Amino acid sequence: MTRSSGILLPVSALPSPCGIGDLGTAAREFIDFLAAAGQRYWQILPLNPPDSAHSPYLSASTFAGSTDLLSPEPFLARGALTADEVRSGDFNASPDVADFEQLADTRWPLFRKAFSRVTPEMKAAIADFTEENREWLPDYALFMALKDAHGGKAWSEWEKPLRLREPSAVKSAEKKYEAEMDFYIFLQFKFFQQWHKLKKYANDNG
Q1: Three-state SS across 93-156?
Q2: How confident is the model over 84-96, as pLDDT tens digits?
């Protein structure tokens, strides 16, 4: 076995004007730095959606990715967001401090705008992604939509039919919150697009 070394750094610890690091340019620049320094490993923390204390170790899903880590750059490149809109998400945070609290006020409005501009071609790709991940994605999207509808309360505080996943209650909720479910599915689609591209970039650079 060849001896090698690397660095442990959470993606969120990367410098960013938007509060926390993401899967965009800073992540690629860090990979470039590691490669130039002769490092072989970038160890990260789990990429699951974090809890209210911003920890990925108590997540709403084993399978979903943290949309806090989504970069707005690819949305700009594809024309889903304008340069002015992306700049509105830059709140001049210190690159040395992780500020999770600002994300809801800056990134989420951007992603909702991008979602409202989904093209027919992307809808087809999202449908394929949903089918490929049907064992967890629709349930996750419904759970998140219901959590929002209940003001962030724990599922144990929801009405009994939903807590017990009674089929009629689940079917009714899927119909009522279909648009919100589609939004959460869209975010997961974009997360895994960005993550797979970043991981490939790392692998291609050794």
Answers
A1: CCCCCCCHHHHHHHHHHHHHHHHCCCCHHHHHHHHHHHHHCCCCHHHHHHHHHHHHHCCCCCHH
A2: 887 776 666 677 7
